[in-house]
Each structure stands twice: as C-alpha cells, then as structure tokens.
C-alpha cells in the first residue's frame, strides 16, 4: 500500500455507478446525483463520471469524495469500513500505542466456569507521545491502571477468544488513545470496542464473572473489528 493515494485505496473497493439513484449520500447528506457536500483538502481531481461509487461487497453507495474524506479522517491503514453496515474492506487496524500482551494459565476457576482453569491476560502499555494516528499528535498521553489483568475461562471457547485477541492485539485494536468515559480524562489509553473481564473472583464493576454471555459477546465484538476464526490460521 506504499505509494497508494487515499483515492486509489478507496477506489480499490468500489464499483462504478453510471446513474446514481435518487438518494442522499449518508456521509454528507447531499444528493448522490449532485456534488459531494464534503470538500476537504486533497480530494480534488475527481471527474464527474466517477463521482459516485458502490462498495463492492455490501453495495452501499457514496460520493467518492465523501469516502476519501472519511478515509483521510481515519488512520489510513489501507482498509475501509462501510459507515452504514460496518462491512470491512481490507484489514482493519487501530491506533493502540506500543506495549506488551502476555498470558498464562492460573490454577483457579472463575465464577460460572467451575470445570476449568483460568487464562490471565496481562496488558502493559507505558505512557508516551501521540503519533499522527492519535487525536493530538505530538502531545503526551497517559496510561492508567497498567498492567491491566483480564480473565478468560481456559475452555475451548475461552482459548478461541484468546487466539482472536492475540490477532486483535497485533492489529492494534485492543486499546486506543482518547477520552476515558469512566474518568473523563483525555489523551489517555482506553479500552477499544472489545470487552474484557478485569475482575477475577467478584463482580463489583460489572466487568467480572459470572456472565454467561461474555464469550459470545466478545466474539461478536471481534467480528465487528474484522476478526474471526476463519481467517485466524495457526501462528508460527
Ligand atoms: N474493566 C473492564 N472494562 C472496563 C472497565 C473495567 N474496569 N471500565 C470500563 N470498561 C469498559 C467500558 O465498559 C467501555 O466499554 O471499557 C470501555 C471504555 O471505557 P473507558 O472508561 O473509556 O475505558 P478506560 O478508561 O480504559 O477504563 C476505565 O478500566 O481497567 C480499568 O484501570 C482501568 O480504571 C480504568 C477503567
Ligand atoms: Zn456524500
């Protein structure tokens, strides 16, 4: 993807639309048949004939300029996510800062999982300086409550979740930098869209066990990030 302009990246996932439907573009809320309401920098040079595109897999249509503007607003990793149905094109990555993910099995059972041991995941991210992919590039970010310890049952499904979390970590999707909804602090490391259980024997925060739906919820959340067992081939 080196050398690909945002417009080239976006076009890779689009089919041509000769006659735009009489609908609005849901990115800019202007008619698809008219010009894009979004005129950001660096989106010029798009001819009228290619001003609307259809995302190849889900079929949703947008102004090309609107998709390019949306892409430029993200972390420009070569992937695109349909803003309507969340279908992912390419491999989605996040802006998780550098750090470490470790795990091991501990010989205790979680509430609700009496028949197996427990996987403990330890995430450690130090504070640092925000990169261009973060909300305030060049400004420091804090990192509270690390190392953060998380727990999964050491069952077949728990181990599957762990495998997918390792992929999510590599794709920088477990944490992000932003404003904590718990503390209100900005420019800090926060959980991204994948829930973790951070309490072991109790459930005082709501982020503990028992929670019979937890593993299935996490699998759904991982899927929304483009991470499923099918593409999760054995690691070397
Ligand atoms: N454990 C697990 N998940 C949590 C926790 C927690 N203690 N608190 C919040 N979350 C979930 C929220 O439900 C939400 O979905 O993380 C998501 C983002 O919430 P924020 O409050 O923005 O995230 P963050 O600031 O990272 O978390 C707050 O979690 O692990 C602790 O030490 C951490 O005290 C901090 C707390
Ligand atoms: Zn538009």
TrEMBL record:
Limits of the RING-type domain: 25-86
Similarity section: Belongs to the Deltex family.
Subcellular location: Cytoplasm
Organism per entry: Gasterosteus aculeatus aculeatus (three-spined stickleback)
Protein name: E3 ubiquitin-protein ligase
Domain of life from the UniProt record: Eukaryota
